[in-house]
Amino acid sequence: MTLKARAQEKVERAGISNYSFDHDVLVMCGVRYTIEACECGEPDCDGVRLRKNMTAMSRILQ
Q: What is the pTM of this model?
């Protein structure tokens, strides 16, 4: 399963329906999230980490 597919599963499992993908960036409620692999080893980890994409935010503020 790809990271994008895992991220989509994670978002849908959380009950969020207002999301989209811009290439490999998840967009929820106008906020962009970078999708990364997570290898923390926690038993309940789904293998995907979402981080706010601050690069896009700083461009908007300029």
A: 0.76
